[in-house]
Structure formats: C-alpha cells, structure tokens
Design brief:
Layout (H helix, E strand, L loop, with lengths): L1 E4 L6 E4 L8 E3 L6 E7 L2 E6 L10
Antiparallel strand pairs: 1-2, 3-4, 4-5
C-alpha cells in the first residue's frame, strides 16, 4: 500500500499492503499509535485511543 507521514514527527510510516480499516499501526520513530481510516479509497491516520487498565475501582 505504501507509506504515510507520521503527523507527530513527520517520519515515514509504512502501511502494509494487506492492512484493513481499523488496524493499528505504530510510528517506528516516535512510537505514536494510529488507527487506519479508509474514506472513499483514501487511507488516513487517526490517533489511536489508549485504554488504561481497569482495576475495578
């Protein structure tokens, strides 16, 4: 599929050819996680939500 630029650090973020919408990819430079979004065939990145641990409190 190619690559996109990381919105956080402008590093090249490789996007696997077999990737699907909703897949999480991480920037190899800064480590930021992104969720792949597909809108009319155009792939974009959305910052992935980080879910903390739930200790039942």
């Amino acid at each position: 599929m190619g690559s996109l630029l990381c919105p956080e650090c402008d590093a090249e973020l490789p996007i696997p050819a077999d990737s699907v919408q909703g897949e999480i990819v991480a920037c190899p430079d800064c480590g930021q996680s992104y969720e792949l979004q597909n809108s009319d065939g155009a792939i974009s990145l959305q910052v992935a939500e980080s879910i903390g641990e739930d200790w039942g409190q």
